[in-house]
Amino acid sequence: MTLGELDRAQEAFVRLCGIAAAGHDDRTLAIARSRIAEILYQRGEFDEALRICREEQLPVYIRLGDVRSAAITQGKIADILYRRGELDEALRIRREEQLPVFTRLGDLREIAMTQGRIAQILAQKGDLAGALDLQVDRLAANRYLKDSDGIASALWDIAQIELEQEKPDEAVPRLVEAWQNFTQMGRADGIAVVGRALGQLVALAGDKDKALEILRRSAAAYRKLRQEAEAQRVEELIAQISR
């Protein structure tokens, strides 16, 4: 969203907060404050977003006995802590406050998403083997759910770990499947990011024409996302490969 769109959305949710407060509708008020926290998060205003989640949302869901919404809010808190570099506390929340709740509820989709977030932290902390195990479990869950977006995202995350482990032969098939899934879904972000990595590996393998095709689609996707600087970087790769 643009800054103007964020401003308008925040104003709308502030108005909704006033209506909900006047009607003593705690749940609607908590949801509206949640949306404001998400906007603040996008703006990089992490302290206020964190305060809203901890002080205005979480107590409401706990009081209402809504364990699922409380666990989701804990996840938002963990997201903010992760962005602030507080990895240990973010990891604790994911493992102790989120995952057990979703496991009790049998919510396979949320379990898979939480596994992915835990894996992200483990990778950041240098535990690539632990991260890979969780991402493989996440991929299996998403295949069971037939969640194309979840499958593609898990494949991309697994491939990144395998590349870091210097296992390109294992990573490339995953990148190919991820890129195909993102392409079929029309997901510009996936086409851009995965295509950029895949195109370079395909070029290194000697298939220049296929690499150029993938990279051109990546550059076009970055432009669709209005990320001109990234599109130009991909075009520089295209120019190098074309020589």
Break the fold down into its secondary structure elements and pairings:
Blueprint: H1 3-22, H2 26-43, H3 46-64, H4 67-83, H5 87-105, H6 108-124, H7 128-145, H8 148-164, H9 168-185, H10 188-204, H11 208-224, H12 228-242
CATH superfamily of the largest domain: Tetratricopeptide repeat domain
Estimate the strand proportion: under 5%
Major β-sheet profile:
none
**What is the helix tally?**
12
Would you identify the regions where 5 or more consecutive residues have pLDDT less than 50? none
Succession of helices and strands: HHHHHHHHHHHH
- Ends apart, CA distance between termini: 38 Å
Under CATH, the topology of the largest domain can be stated as Serine Threonine Protein Phosphatase 5, Tetratricopeptide repeat
Please, what is the oligomeric state?
single chain
Task: Indicate the percent of residues in helices.
Answer: over 70%
Number of strands: 0
CATH class of the largest domain: Mainly Alpha
> Which descriptor suits the 3D outline?
globular
What is the CA-based Rg, rounded?
Answer: 20 Å
Structural classification = mainly alpha
What is the second-level CATH architecture of the largest domain?
Alpha Horseshoe
Into how many domains do the coordinates divide? Answer: 3
Mean pLDDT equals: 92
Tell me what the structure shows.
The protein is an all-alpha fold. It has 3 domains: 1-98, Serine Threonine Protein Phosphatase 5, Tetratricopeptide repeat; 107-174, Serine Threonine Protein Phosphatase 5, Tetratricopeptide repeat (Alpha Horseshoe); 186-243, no CATH class. 87% of the residues lie in helices and 0% in strands. The chain contains 12 helices and no strands. The chain has helices at 3-22, 26-43, 46-64, 67-83, 87-105, 108-124, 128-145, 148-164, 168-185, 188-204, 208-224, 228-242. Helix 6 packs antiparallel against helix 7. The protein is globular, with a radius of gyration of 20 Å. The two termini are 38 Å apart. The mean pLDDT is 92.
